[in-house]
Amino acid sequence: MPEERLRLQFRQPVFIEARTNFYARPEFNIFPLLVRSDESAESVVGYREVKGAAWLDRSYGKFYASVGYNLQVENPFTYKGPLDPDLSTLIISGPRGERHVSTSATIACTRTKGVFLGANLQFAGGAFGATRAISRCSPRSARTFARVEVTFATRASVGFLYRATTATSSKTISMS
User: To which H or E segment does residue 32 belong?
Assistant: First the structure.
């Protein structure tokens, strides 16, 4: 089954002022949702996915902050067979924010010692025009770096996804 992934990213440095950058990232994907491994399935569902994101970022010493907006549209189709009438186009739209603090020493683009802590916040729905209301808070990662004879690095990440409860919705949606 044909599958396609296209992702572009535009970066405009020195946007508004010297330490602020502007980013725009459009994306278009087509992929199958394979739930059975045999060929006896009546229909094979695929998705056309259109994503777009625009954001600004800026560093303040060892503190980094980013604010932006995400838009994602998931449109189902079938590679073969009929499309389930319960499947419909899903829109995920909303702002996002990211921040991190780094005490790492960078030598020749290689982290050798220090700590990196980051978090990512996203919201969709409500006033942002999405199909479902959700919010996501993910402590992006915690990384440590220590130099012995070689650099020893660790990384840990945990995330939380919250679903707004409505009388008509019982599905959980994940943003990525």
Answer: strand 20-33
